[in-house]
Structure formats: structure tokens, C-alpha cells
């Protein structure tokens, strides 16, 4: 399935975090979040998982998966704890997190402790995710703070399911990075700088391939 997935030695228990996202493009908010989760939860690796056809996105045209994959690769390649998977971008169907997580359990079997890392905006939607109750049994969630979104709303949003869901959700404060891919795309389209919002090689890749420039100006 998947090259660049961490290997395990026989008898060794592997602690993996999956950082799912559209990564259109990847930015410092994703990287700081993954790094903090990796350290705080003593993970062996964080696997960045760019989505194929994202089931939760609106209808805007998501950038070609290979571009998103390569930008993510450029951003994570130097970190020995970070890796990347092609599982979802190679899937012929829209990828659901529960399917991805099931696949990880098939590959690693009993020896896996799995975490799924999401920002506050994503965890709030968890009850709309496919088979979310099974998903929560298959992996714990690390729900991180994100500027502009409040984790305090979870009790209200989850209602009667709050206690059950929170048994599988760990809250994690991460250094605040008020950055989004949407804002980066807007800035590029407007000719504004994106330096320091995303790693230099990603910035260069965006400019080299003329990503996020409105068609009429291209
Ligand atoms: P878009 O604006 O296109 O939705 P995004 O910046 O939200 O992009 P995604 O690829 O949608 O990035 O997000 C992937 C994951 O990273 C989600 O779980 C999201 O909550 C989390 N995330 C994104 N940006 C941040 C940030 N600045 N701080 C913390 N978590 C973040
Ligand atoms: Mg998003």
C-alpha cells in the first residue's frame, strides 16, 4: 500500500500518529501540531496522510494529489520522526478515516498503538465521520488547539455522547499558529508573501509550479 510507512521489528510495539489533511498546501500549523503531538505522546512516528478526494471538503477544486503529496514530502523529509503515506491519494474512492485506520490495523496487527491527530475544527465534526464510534475504538484522537476554534464547545456539540467520545479523545495545547491553507492560497492569489508560513521548499514549489494563481492571470 504504502511505501514510506515505518517498519517494526518483531515483538516491538509501535506508537504511530496519523496526521490527516488536504495539505493544500501543508504549512507550519500542521508541522508544529504534529511535532508537539509526537513529543507529548511519545510517538515513534507521525505519518502524514494527504487525502485523495476529501469527503468533508466543499466543492472547491482541490489541487492535484501529486502536487499536495510532493509539497508534504518536502515539508516532512528532514524530520526523522515524520513520514508520509500514499494510501489515500492512491485510493480510487473518497477516503474515509475509518478505512485508513482499519488498513493500518491490518498491516501492523496487535503491535500497534494508533493515534489520529486533528485540530479543534476537525474534531468538532467527528460525529459526522463515517462509522465514528468504531473509529474511536480503533484509535485514540489527539485533538489540538487551533486559533479561531474552541475546544470548549465540545460538550455542547457532542451532547449526550460527550462522555463516551471523550474517553477516546486527548486534548493537547499546541503553540498557536494562526495559519490556514485557505489563507495561504488567498495570499498567493493576491501576490502576497507566504514566506515563513510554510517551509521554504514548499514556498518555492508553489511558485515554481504556479499553484494557487487564478486562471485568468496564469
Ligand atoms: P483549509 O484551509 O484548506 O481547510 P487547513 O489549514 O485547515 O486547510 P487541513 O489540511 O484542512 O488544513 O487540515 C489538516 C489538519 O490539520 C486538520 O485536523 C486541521 O484541524 C489541522 N490544522 C490545520 N491548521 C492548523 C493550525 N494552524 N493549528 C492546528 N491545527 C491545524
Ligand atoms: Mg481545514
Keywords:
218 residues, alpha/beta, Rossmann fold, six-stranded parallel beta sheet, binds adenosine-5'-triphosphate, binds magnesium ion
Question: What does it look like?
Answer:
A six-stranded parallel beta sheet has the order 3-2-1-4-5-6, sandwiched between helices. The protein has nine helices and six strands, in the order βαβαβαβααβααβαα. The model has no long low-confidence stretch (mean pLDDT 92). The protein is of the alpha/beta class. The protein is globular and about 50 Å long. Helix content is 35%, strand content 16%. Bound molecules: adenosine-5'-triphosphate (ATP) and magnesium ion. Adenosine-5'-triphosphate (ATP) binds next to helix 1, strand 4, helix 4 and helix 8.
Rough outline? globular
**Overall pLDDT metric:** 92
Ions and ligands:
adenosine-5'-triphosphate, magnesium ion
Major sheet size, sense and barrel closure: 6 strands, parallel
Task: Report the CATH C-level class.
Answer: Alpha Beta
Integer-rounded radius of gyration: 17 Å
In whole angstroms, the N-to-C terminal distance is: 36 Å
Give me the count of strands.
6
CATH superfamily: HUPs
Order of helices and strands: EHEHEHEHHEHHEHH
Number of helices: 9
Total count of domains = 1
Helix content: 25-40%
SS-derived structural category: alpha/beta
Q: Which percent range describes the beta-strand content?
A: 15-25%
Could you say what the CATH topology is called? Rossmann fold
